[in-house]
Each structure stands twice: as structure tokens, then as C-alpha cells.
Design brief:
Beta-Lactamase, five-stranded antiparallel sheet, 5 strands, PAS domain-containing protein, PAS, PAS-like_dom_sf, PAS_fold_3
Length: about 110
């Protein structure tokens, strides 16, 4: 992953991908067509502790943003690390309607 890449995706409330930018598709090795409608855990690496995602979900579902290092899995079986920033997106009534994830290349000290 290029240190200047920004991987961007949005999901519905059930974690199904509703948008993925070209950088995310390229790094993960999927086409946009393969990603849309799929659960975001499509790129989850089995090495990631389940507790990290439990913490992330409890944080974003209560309306707060979450940030942390994440090891992801590409379609070809390779893995890649990202710094993930996940935030709930609200409508005009203040209701959470989707989640947005922005990922960047991690610095060595974050791994």
C-alpha cells in the first residue's frame, strides 16, 4: 500500500459495502462490482482479534468515531496493514444512517 493512498468505503448499518473508492479496490484486489453489497469483513484477516472489532462496533454504534490499526486480507490471500478511522454518518435528524471508513498506510510505530 502506497503511503499516500487513502482507502475509503461506506457501509450500511449492517456493514454491507455501499461505496469503495478505486484505491481500496486496487489494494484489496476486488472490483467495485465484487465489493458492493458484500459485508465489509470481506477483507477481514483472521489474525485480527475479534475483540478489536467488538470494540469498534460498540464505539460506532453509540455514535462515536473509532481509530486503530487493522490487518486486512486481500483477495489474493496477501495481507496489508492500515490505520483505520471509522465514523458514523448521521442524517438531518441525527440518526446514524451509514458508516464511513478512511484507511491510510500505517507508520511503523503504530504496528
Amino acid at each position: 500500500m502506497d503511503k499516500h493512498s487513502i482507502l475509503l468505503s461506506t457501509t450500511d448499518l449492517d456493514s454491507r459495502i455501499t461505496y469503495a473508492n478505486q484505491s481500496f479496490c486496487e489494494v484489496a484486489g476486488y472490483t467495485i462490482g465484487e465489493m458492493l453489497g458484500q459485508p465489509h469483513n470481506l477483507v477481514r484477516n483472521k489474525d485480527m482479534p475479534k475483540a478489536a472489532f467488538k470494540n469498534m462496533w460498540s464505539t460506532i454504534q453509540r455514535g462515536d468515531s473509532w481509530m486503530g490499526p487493522v490487518k486486512n486480507l486481500a483477495k489474493n490471500g496477501d495481507y496489508y496493514w492500515v490505520n483505520a478511522f471509522v465514523t458514523p454518518i448521521r442524517d438531518t435528524k441525527g440518526e446514524i444512517v451509514e458508516y464511513q471508513s478512511v484507511r491510510t498506510a500505517p507508520s511503523p510505530e503504530t504496528l
